[in-house]
């Protein structure tokens, strides 16, 4: 018999969402924030780590102009919802030069930290679940 309570106890769980999708695939850009918001509202510690093209979503002006579907809610609103829910946003420092993004001036205010790849490795090793987009 399955103990359903083990699935309902979210105490001290951590989820890392690795976001590699960016503006070239807008249909993939809302769900990580929505899912992160839902998980955070369930008292799960949620980190979204942006790398590869995903760092572009954290660039000023990009998420403000991007929607997952035509006429839909702007990605910046999904980002702000996730932040209000308690999601932590990490941007991969080694990925920024490839997109000519300066961490000190080009990132949106919602970014919590600019991080090295080793910090992603640490997050992945200590978390309970990893989801990729």
In words, what does this structure look like?
This protein starts with a helix and ends with a strand. It is built from four helices and five strands. The relative contact order is 0.23. It is of the alpha/beta class. The longest helix is centred in the N-terminal third of the chain and has 11 residues, at 31-41. The radius of gyration is 15 Å and the shape is globular. The protein has helices at 5-8, 31-41, 75-85, 117-126; strands at residues 14-19, 45-50, 88-92, 113-115, 129-132. The mean pLDDT is 94. It has a five-stranded parallel β-sheet, with helices on both faces. The chain has a single domain (11-132), classed as DsrEFH-like (Hypothetical Protein Ychn, Chain: A, 3-Layer(aba) Sandwich), CATH 3.40.1260.10. Helix content is 27%, strand content 18%. InterPro entries: DsrEFH-like (IPR027396), Sulphur_relay_DsrE/F-like (IPR003787). This is Sulfur reduction protein DsrE. It holds the Pfam family DsrE.
């Amino acid at each position: 018999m399955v103990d359903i309570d083990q699935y309902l106890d979210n105490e001290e769980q951590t989820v890392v969402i690795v976001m590699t999708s960016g503006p070239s695939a807008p249909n993939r850009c809302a769900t990580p924030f929505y899912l992160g918001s839902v998980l955070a509202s369930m008292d799960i510690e949620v980190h979204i780590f942006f790398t590869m093209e995903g760092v572009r979503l954290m660039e000023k002006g990009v998420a403000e102009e991007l929607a997952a579907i035509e006429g839909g809610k702007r990605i910046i609103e999904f980002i702000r919802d996730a932040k209000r829910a308690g999601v932590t946003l990490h941007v991969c420092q080694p990925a920024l030069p490839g997109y000519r993004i300066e961490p000190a001036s080009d990132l949106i205010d919602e970014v919590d930290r600019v991080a090295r790849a080793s910090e992603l490795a640490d997050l992945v090793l200590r978390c309970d679940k990893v989801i990729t987009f």
